[in-house]
Specification:
The protein has a single domain, classed as Rossmann fold, CATH 3.40.50. It is globular, with a radius of gyration of 17 Å. α7 links the parallel β6 and β7. By secondary structure, the chain is α/β, with parallel strands linked by helices. Strands 3-2-1-4-5-6-7 form a 7-stranded parallel sheet, with helices on both faces. The protein is built from 7 helices and 7 strands; from the N terminus they run βαβαβαβαβααβαβ.
Length: 245
């Protein structure tokens, strides 16, 4: 049975991705900062008939937690087929480039960038044992330098500079990771789930959590001819070739 780890999986998009992967026959480890919340999520999914999953305590900002999760999962499986780096925070409101505190910047980068790097490095040895390993980093169209450099376009007037800077850094990390793994059967991509109605957005948005989950799960399930080192934002750019970093 293929296996997957989804971080930040006790609710919202992460939980939806975990559900979709379980439906595709994966054993899914639900990473949750609060283990009880993760166990509650697993129990809810089990009542719907999905039994191939387990909650794992995983705080991506805590190296000891990451290593403990790696040990726990490694004791159960020698192979990890999919890693979805979904855990993320927005840094709170309001935030501007001039007035956001350094504490805001540090907290957001700790989760959205350093946390992704820490988890990926901890689990890459298990991923390397898979015949077709996949890494999906959950990003956002708001991280596009191309789009947000267009000051005249009112479509991109809404700005969260702390959050956006962290996700732009995540996108570069994704490119570099894909490059370093280019001679192996990895597929490594950054995916925007869309503006999704979850607690993260205050239940505001133009996409459902089901739609967002499908967008991410699609790239976790890529075949051997699928893309790597790319950024996808299908809500806004249905043709991947036109999707700007």
């Amino acid at each position: 049975m293929n296996s997957a780890l989804v971080t930040g999986a006790n609710k919202g998009i992460g939980l939806q991705v975990a559900q979709l992967l379980a439906q595709q026959g994966f054993f899914v480890y639900l990473g949750s900062r609060n283990l009880a919340n993760g166990q509650d999520a697993v129990q809810r999914l089990r009542t719907s008939g999905l039994t191939t999953m387990e909650a794992v305590q995983l705080d991506v900002t805590d190296p000891a937690s990451i290593q403990a999760a790696r040990a726990a999962i490694g004791a159960k499986t020698p192979v990890l087929d999919v890693l979805v780096n979904n855990a993320g925070i927005n840094g709170g409101m309001p935030q501007t480039a001039l007035n956001a505190t350094l504490a805001q910047f540090r907290a957001v980068f700790e989760t959205n960038v350093f946390g992704v790097a820490g988890v990926t490095q901890a689990f890459v040895d298990l991923l390397e044992q898979a015949p077709q390993p996949r890494i999906v980093n959950v990003s956002t169209s708001m991280a596009s330098l191309t789009l947000y450099a267009d000051f005249a376009n009112d479509t991109y007037a809404y700005r969260l500079p702390v959050y956006q800077a962290s996700k732009a850094a995540l996108n570069m990390y994704t490119i570099q990771l894909a490059y370093e793994l280019r001679d192996k059967p990895f597929k490594v991509n950054a995916v925007c789930p869309g503006y999704t109605k979850t607690d993260f957005t205050g239940q505001q948005g133009s996409s459902t959590v089901e739609e967002a989950g499908q967008r991410i799960a699609k790239y976790a399930l890529l075949g051997p001819d699928g893309p790597t080192g790319q950024f996808f934002s299908e809500e806004y750019f249905p043709a991947p070739a036109t999707c700007p970093w």
